[in-house]
Amino acid sequence: GINAEYGERxxxxxxxxxxxxxxxxxxxxxxxxxMHLHLKLKKLQMEEERLATVERDNRILLHKxxxxxxxxxxxxxxxxxKYIHKSLNKIKRQRELEKIASENKAIHKRIAAQ
Length: 114
Known about the structure:
Helix content is 68%, strand content 0%. The protein has four helices and no strands. It has helices at residues 2-20, 35-39, 41-70, 90-113.
């Protein structure tokens, strides 16, 4: 009857309304963002430590430079200037000199003998 047709028509209207306002079942939203993943505290800490090291090294260099400017600027790799210069071929040069001296003596004797 009429009530059945009316009920069917209501169901059809409800169905069409549902179709018009239907939303997708696929989640297209961006994933949740977690601040601890974006902050990267360890990276920040390491960067701060590196900057602190650079600052410390710069202070040390500045202190050394000011010391050089205030004093005569000696080389600091010799301990209290106790470095003794040592020639590597001193013995060879001495032998050559002795040989030349003995040859000169022999030549001098020959000249003096004539």
